[in-house]
Amino acid sequence: MAELKIGRITLGMCQTNFYFLYLEGCNEVIAVDPADKGAYLFDTLKKHNFTVGAILLTHGHFDHIWGCNELRELSGAKVYAYKEEEEVLLSERLNVSSGVGSPYTVKADYLLEDNEEFELCGIKEKLIATPGHTKGSCCYYEKKEEVLMSGDTLFCRSVGRSDFPTGNGRVLAESIRQKLFCLP
């Protein structure tokens, strides 16, 4: 079985981490949170002989979605998100994009359930609902390699903020305690 590889590009006004996952020897990637400049991400991946097979969103805040529609259009990839985040993705107010002067929305092609397991680009993933940063924040877990894509739910020695619309600090702490601390 091919080894899971992870690439990262940091970009945008919030210095958001865009990740791409792929199997060693494979050129198709899963794009996670296309932060900004979808054409730049597409061209950079293409320059390294990668194609985008799917786009995963951990939540709908502007700094994680601004590049999504452009990357989807250029790559033809489908967008996946947790079903509870649909309202945030579709609201310029809730995703805070109107508040920073560049209104933006994304309509996911597929809305996933909590604990739903799926396979994209040969990589098996599980959606773990972790509300609190937003009401529909989620993480994606790849069990074999024990890799968690946490978006803004969890940082090194910190957690995502919970003071934006639909955020809740108590719920965020509970999500981390109940859903993430039990992982290996």
Write up what this structure looks like:
The structure is a single chain. Strand 11 and strand 12 form a beta hairpin. The protein has helices at residues 38-47, 62-65, 68-75, 86-89, 169-180; strands at residues 4-11, 16-23, 28-32, 51-56, 78-82, 110-112, 117-120, 123-129, 138-142, 147-149, 154-155, 158-159. The mean pLDDT is 96. The relative contact order is 0.15. It starts with a strand and ends with a helix. The protein has 184 residues and is an alpha/beta fold. It has 5 helices and 12 strands. The longest helix has 12 residues, at 169-180. The strands form 3 sheets. Strands 1-2-3-4-5-6 form a 6-stranded mixed β-sheet, with helices on one face. The protein is globular, with a radius of gyration of 15 Å.
Condensed summary:
With 184 residues, this protein is α/β, with parallel strands linked by helices.
Radius of gyration of CA atoms, rounded to a whole number: 15 Å
Question: What count of helical segments does DSSP give?
Answer: 5
Query: How do the strands line up in the largest sheet?
Result: 1-2-3-4-5-6
Could you give a short account of the major beta sheet? 6 strands, mixed
Find the structural class using helix and strand composition.
alpha/beta
Strand percentage: 25-35%
Question: N-to-C SSE series?
Answer: EEEHEHHEHEEEEEEEH
Please mark out the parts with pLDDT under 50 across 5 or more consecutive residues, or reply none. none
Average pLDDT number: 96
**Helical residue percent?**
10-25%
Strand segment count: 12
Oligomer: single chain
Termini separation: 21 Å
Overall geometric form: globular
